[in-house]
Design a protein that fits this description.
589 residues; alpha+beta; Beta-Lactamase; six-stranded antiparallel sheet; 26% strand
Length: 589
């Protein structure tokens, strides 16, 4: 049997495997970058559109709140103006009514004339009437409508002591006005007259113009029961009677400060209005302001158009950018396909002149191995990847150690025909010739190595056999002593195969005693314990003993991977750096 040694450090574990990273498989959708880009662009476009619409809705709500606030402010202003005037007129009418009741019509006329004189410039006409509606005194010559007078007389009899207001009615030839009256009662509660005032709508039309409410704006005055007294719009003054038999909007409940939001205007074919109303303090009257919402928010249409133009421009840029990116991506994919095809052709050409292809990273760890490596070494690629080649105990250089190879890769130099020995799991030795060149980055840094490997087992074995045949023939022809000749043959075989120990064993066919005769140990190798144990005679077993069977069958037994043939001899072999296992040669002894 023959033992071989290797200077590589013995592994501390029976099997070391590189860590494998398990990656989650992405959905097939992500294998198509163009589709992913298109879907992303569609989602982004939808987000832009939704965000733009939300901004428009926010602007619309903000504009609506602005219109409501403006209408509310105008309504409060109108309430203050109308309230102050109604309060002043009510005071004047009450005073005149009281004086007429107490001092008579003539004194009341004088008193009323004085008070009216102090209201110069106001668009109002004052009257004192008797119980039959006849004029006792008037501030200006004005023909009164008997229907209006009869309504005020009737209201004075029913609601004594209260201010009565009737809707807008004709006031002279070219004017319209609102009539207000306060009844004059005698001591027994009978109606004896009226203090009446007719207020021209000119004043309220001026207020309407100052408010700048637009074409759809409207001012309104209502009684407490909801009857429309007057509606002032751009096309003039209308009354509830003109809108349709004492038009009523419904009695509006009071809010905290007497104001609230409502659409008090009743205009056919003009929906979508924003309005506000306010009660006059102390009087059964309301005033309201309303505008057409669409007209009031006309400026918003320009804003919405601007936002939509911006959205269209953004979507256009998105579409254009997507098309450009798809074109670039398509070009890149064509380049990648061309590179893959080129790599496939490269590997195919390499396969014609080599048995496998390999790559390493900057740390010289194997990152890629083609299938040919496993066919030669008998080891799966996963067992080798992730570590440098010199870290594997089953890979050893032929004729040297790893120093030369490490020196070359340290200098980033190429190397060629670096022959290594592979020990297959079953103990068979194969040989490979490795060549490689460095891969350099743009900045000059080493990215790794790439190269090829060739199976040179047949060539190496043939060379070894020819050398051994020549040397053995020479030794047998020169050496006269048989023991010395056998020793020389063992040494020649060991040196040719780069083995460190060789021996010839003899099996006595009668006693089945197995003894060790000629042997050779590589000079400088300290294996005294192993040699002593190997030289001890041992009882052979021709039925199950590996060495005994080989001798009986005239075979040469070559131990290339040590197994526990003998526990003590195994420990001694490992201590001396010898490793081995058994393999039978097909060469007869």
């Amino acid at each position: 049997m023959i033992y071989m040694t290797n200077s590589t450090k013995m592994p501390t574990e029976l099997d070391e495997r590189p860590n494998r990273t398990h990656r989650m498989r992405l959905p097939a959708l992500f294998d198509n970058p163009g589709l992913v880009l298109t879907i992303g662009a569609l989602l982004l476009g939808a987000a832009i559109f939704a965000a733009n619409e939300q901004v428009i809705r926010d602007e619309r709500a903000r504009a609506a709140r602005g219109v409501e606030q403006r209408v509310e402010a105008l309504t409060r202003t109108l309430r203050d103006q109308v309230g102050a005037e109604v309060a002043a007129l009510d005071t004047l009418l009450r005073t005149a009514s009281g004086v007429m009741q107490r001092d008579g019509a003539e004194v009341a006329a004088v008193r009323m004339a004085r008070m009216v004189a102090m209201r110069s410039g106001e668009s109002a006409y004052f009257f004192l009437l008797n119980a039959r509606g006849g004029k006792i005194w008037e501030s200006s010559a004005l023909e009164l409508d008997n229907t209006i007078v009869d309504q005020h007389l009737a209201a004075g009899r029913v609601q004594a002591g209260r201010l009565h207001i009737t809707p807008v009615h004709a006031l002279g030839m070219n004017d319209q006005g609102v009539y207000m009256s306060h009844p004059v009662m005698d001591g027994e509660g009978r109606l004896t007259g009226l203090a009446l005032v007719a207020i021209s709508m000119d004043r309220y039309q001026r207020i309407y113009g100052e408010m700048n409410l637009g074409d759809s704006g409207m001012l309104q005055m209502l009684r407490g029961d909801g009857t429309v007294i007057a509606s002032i719009a751009q096309d003039g003054v209308t009354t509830g009677r003109q809108q349709g038999n004492e038009q009523r909007t419904g009695i509006v409940p009071r809010s905290g400060d007497g104001c609230g939001s409502a659409n008090l205007a009743v205009l056919p074919n003009n929906p979508g209005r924003t309005g506000n109303f306010c009660w006059l303090d102390g009087f059964p009257l309301l005033v309201g302001v309303s505008v057409g919402t669409a007209e009031a928010m006309a400026g918003l249409q320009v804003t919405e158009l601007r936002y939509r133009i911006i959205a269209v421009l953004l979507l256009g840029l998105l579409v254009g950018g997507t098309l450009i990116l798809r074109a670039l991506l398509s070009r890149q994919q064509r380049i990648q396909h061309a590179l893959r095809d080129s790599e496939t052709r490269f590997r195919a050409l390499n396969a014609l002149g080599s048995d496998w292809y390999w790559e390493t990273d900057a740390e010289h760890r194997l990152t890629d191995l083609s299938e040919g490596f496993s066919r030669v070494s008998g080891r799966p690629a996963a067992e080798v990847l992730g570590r440098p080649g010199w870290d594997h105990v089953f890979i050893t250089p032929v004729g040297s150690d790893w120093t030369e190879r490490k020196t070359l890769v340290t200098r980033c130099a190429p190397f060629h025909n670096f022959v290594v020995r592979y020990v297959r799991p079953e103990g068979v030795v194969t040989y490979g010739s490795i060549s490689g060149e460095p891969i350099m980055a743009a900045d000059g840094a080493l990215k790794g190595y790439q190269g090829i490997g060739k199976d040179v087992t047949a060539e190496i074995v043939l060379r070894q056999r020819l050398r051994m045949q020549h040397d053995v023939t020479r030794i047998l022809s020169e050496e006269k002593d048989a023991a010395l000749a056998i020793h020389g043959v063992i040494e020649t075989i060991c040196r040719t195969m780069e083995w460190s120990w060789g021996a010839r064993r003899h099996l006595d066919t009668k006693s089945l005693l197995l003894t060790c005769h000629e042997h050779w140990l590589m000079p400088g190798l300290r294996a005294d314990d192993f040699v002593a144990l190997a030289l001890e005679p041992k009882q052979g077993d021709i039925r199950s003993g590996t060495v005994s069977c080989a001798i009986m069958q005239s075979e040469i037994m070559v131990f290339t991977d040590h197994t526990s043939i003998s526990l003590r001899r195994s420990k001694a072999a490992h201590a001396a750096g010898l490793r081995g296992g058994s393999r039978r040669s097909d060469t007869p002894q």
